[in-house]
Design brief:
single chain, alpha+beta, Alpha-Beta Plaits, four-stranded antiparallel sheet, 1 helix, 4 strands, about 40% strand
């Protein structure tokens, strides 16, 4: 499947996981910005936002989420950046 983007094109992604992931994990996730939101009626959600250089890096980041046993809630491509 293809989304019409050129191979190797960078894109900004927002990845949401259940639970709280401290900002100190940013380096492990390729410098992504880490924020979290906790509401009294639901689980805490951590959002990782940043540029991902290619699909292989995105796959590696998702593997890290798996390795940390975090629950993946969403992966959203926000915009593309010109290479």
């Amino acid at each position: 499947m293809t989304d019409g983007c050129k191979s190797g094109q960078q894109a900004v992604y927002q990845i949401e996981v259940e639970g709280r992931l401290d900002a100190c994990w940013s380096d492990w996730f390729n410098g992504m910005t880490i924020t979290f939101d906790s509401e009294s009626d639901g689980p805490t959600v951590t959002t990782l936002t940043g540029t991902v250089v290619d699909q292989a890096k995105l796959r590696g980041m998702l593997a890290k989420i798996w390795d940390l046993n975090l629950t993946l809630m969403s992966v959203t491509r926000l915009e593309s950046e010109k290479s």
